[in-house]
Amino acid sequence: MTVVLCGVGGDTGNVRPVPQVDADGRFEYVPIPEKGPTTETSTYGSLPQRYGDGSLADLLAGVRPGSDGGWLTDPDTVAAHPVHHDPNLDALTYGEHRPAYVSRLRGLDPGDVVAFYTGLRGPDSDEKHRYLFGYLTVGAEPTVLDPEMDPGAKRRALETHPQNAHTRRFQAAGDLYYHDESVTDRPETVVIVDGCEPGGLLDRAVRLSDRRQGPNYYMASELVERLTPESAGEGGVHLGGIKPAIRAEVSRQRFLDVLDRRP
Q: Which of 142, 70, 150 is nearest to 103 (CA)?
């Protein structure tokens, strides 16, 4: 079985403060802020916390929609801002445009797994580590949307993924964000993976990293032995800085055993 680990979610570049994990591994999944038109109705103020009172907006001092944009810090503005709910682990759907990710995701088969990790602050300090927080089992062959596709073909393809965040961008703007030449001069392929059970948001986050070197994180040696990622080398498995996509061939039971690992 193939597992692709994908780095996603609110982190240093787009939310303040970075979400935190407690001593028992409990956490809140904070999606990144949407940076363009969307039909998404979920906002930071409408999404409830799983383990605390109030909404996700109550955890945030600011959001930044887009890496080159300014920070939004007014509490009402933060609460009203739509999320880019990707992955949507309630609907088990995920879309991606980053080329290194697309190349790993587009070849997945039903029964393979896409797992998601992010940066979280530790329970006793602001030091961050990489944590696995959810996954989906691939339910069907991924949908690949190339920039040169006819708009009607894109629309028909996206109709089969109604709850995906990229579909909701298309519905609002008439094109995919990363295909729109008014937005980018380097259109990129988008891949959408819809999932099935088993999968979803984990009750407890699983810590993946055991050390840092400058801004970069490295996978714990125990997990390297269990997952044997294809990127493993003498220096270990790099988890970013900029979060890489990591591919591994592993049995389903061994992957499920990893999910039982505690912080």
A: 142
